[in-house]
């Protein structure tokens, strides 16, 4: 899956990552932002109640003399736009976290869902809802604690004398995911029947039940997490050559590892706390970005963040419209899109 260099010399491999310039990064990210804007506009129009293009454009520009009725304006501003913004924040968080995990662990299969990090955040969120339901702040805090706890356990289980091999890492992720799934089942047994149904839908990815405070938390976490990862992107480039080589080239390996794990856990925790478990975003989106623009993390991380936002907005639009007026879990749509796409990428690689 990775683009391999023709040489085994780490210094020569490192020189191949220097082709990314600020101008190229701005051009690529600008193009992806254009696609994000298109997806944002289309998602604002489509839904169980279709809105007119001119009316939406007029309302988004702040004009009061638009063709939208009062009910349509309420649909756009009170229901649809907050959901679109949340989808963008969730996609940004998961794609950036997936890109960081893959670079840090040098494993193309590393992503929050497969590593058990999403399940760790889900267990933390469910525990917060069951035991601290009156305190909304407890959801992101407990989700972050669950995510970083699962990350630590998986990494320690996979760590051998020769390091964390891809096989050991995935096996550790499967073990932790299975254990946390059992914990989720245990927590649901203490709920009543009506709450179990809503929690099951939430676990599959639900963007409809967020609040303004959780939306703000998701955006703040996305900004902080992505900024931290971008600031360490050059160090991640060196660590992709191997931790020993990176250390010889001046990278503080322990500090970078701690920052990346903490930032990725923050991103995953914020995403799961506000939307449940949405799979395949952190796996497929970084791969598509690397295939399109190369493996330099100075470009991959910001580009994956923008592309992830677009991906989840498109998936949520499909979830809202395929069987309208009923809705599908957005996680089911990302799996239906992501699984065949990943199979294609796997066969191509």
Describe this structure in words.
Helices cover about 75% and strands about 0% of the residues. The chain is mainly α and about 350 residues long. It has one domain: ABC transporter involved in vitamin B12 uptake, BtuC (Orthogonal Bundle), CATH 1.10.3470. The chain has a two-stranded antiparallel ribbon with strand order 1-2. Mean pLDDT is about 85; it is low at about 5-20.
Which architecture per CATH?
Answer: Orthogonal Bundle
Main sheet: which strands, in order across?
1-2
Biggest sheet, in brief? 2 strands, antiparallel
Low-confidence stretches: 3-18
Summarize the structure.
By secondary structure, the chain is mainly α.
Topology of helices and strands:
Layout: H1 10-15, H2 22-45, H3 53-60, H4 70-105, H5 117-131, H6 138-158, E1 159-160, E2 163-164, H7 166-188, H8 193-203, H9 212-231, H10 233-239, H11 243-248, H12 253-275, H13 281-293, H14 297-321, H15 330-348
Antiparallel strand pairs: 1-2
Helix pairs in contact: 2-4, 2-14, 4-9, 4-12, 4-13, 4-14, 5-6, 5-7, 5-12, 6-7, 6-12, 9-12, 9-14, 10-14, 13-14, 13-15, 14-15
Please give a handful of descriptors for the protein shown.
globular; ABC transporter involved in vitamin B12 uptake, BtuC; mainly alpha; disordered N terminus; 349 residues; two-stranded antiparallel ribbon
